[in-house]
């Protein structure tokens, strides 16, 4: 079989649909039509193999990039942790020596107060907190519970199950 590599999958799909339309015509030579359909199907399968190779390579590349991103993220966390340790050691040294503000040729150093932050007690009686200091979350739908209810036979006018499709390459 001669491969028509220059034809796109889109063009092959169009050709296949035209052939299927022709198959409905009673005047068409059935054997020639059958051979042509088989040839186009073979071309589509050939193209599909090429697409699958590209998809598999891209999936491998994406997985490799994910692993590298994870590795770099862990490295960043380690560096950030070391920065905090070094800052705390320098701060402790400055406080211990009483040298809480000074300049060098390159940098200025000082121990400064941070903005005040609110800390809440661990066991607050929420009834004792005035309403103006409370916020209430918007209600949300428990999708898992609704899905299980529908599977169990219940029906709702505001929810339904949708079954999608996707390409699987093995």
Question: Which features characterize this protein?
Answer:
170 residues, 4% strand, two-stranded antiparallel ribbon, mainly alpha, 54% helix
| Number of E strands | 2
Please compute the radius of gyration using only Cα atoms: 34 Å
The helix/strand order is HHEEH
Q: Summarize the main sheet.
A: 2 strands, antiparallel
Q: Per the principal axes of the C-alpha atoms, what is the gross shape?
A: elongated
| Mean pLDDT score | 89
Strand line-up across the major sheet? 1-2
Unreliable parts = none
Strand share of the residues? under 5%
Helix content: 40-55%
Report the structural category: mainly alpha
Number of helices: 3
What does this 3D model show about the protein?
The protein is mainly alpha-helical. The protein contains 3 helices and 2 strands, in the order H-H-E-E-H. It has a two-stranded antiparallel sheet. A hairpin with a 4-residue loop joins strand 1 (101-103) and strand 2. The longest helix has 68 residues, at 30-97. The chain is elongated. The model has no long low-confidence stretch (mean pLDDT 89).
């Amino acid at each position: 079989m001669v491969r028509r590599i220059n034809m796109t999958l889109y063009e092959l799909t169009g050709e296949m649909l035209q052939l299927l339309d022709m198959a409905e015509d009673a005047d068409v030579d059935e054997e020639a039509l059958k051979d042509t359909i088989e040839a186009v199907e073979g071309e589509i399968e050939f193209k599909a193999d090429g697409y699958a190779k590209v998809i598999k390579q891209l999936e491998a590349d994406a997985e490799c990039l994910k692993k590298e991103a994870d590795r770099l993220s862990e490295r960043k966390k380690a560096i950030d942790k070391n920065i905090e340790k070094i800052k705390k050691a320098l701060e402790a040294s400055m406080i211990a020596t009483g040298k809480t503000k000074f300049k060098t040729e390159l940098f200025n150093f000082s121990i400064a107060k941070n903005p005040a932050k609110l800390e809440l007690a661990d066991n607050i009686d929420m009834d004792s907190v005035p309403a103006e200091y409370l916020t209430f979350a918007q209600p949300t739908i428990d999708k898992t519970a609704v899905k299980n209810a529908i599977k169990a036979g219940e029906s709702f006018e505001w929810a339904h199950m949708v079954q999608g499709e996707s390409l699987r390459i093995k």
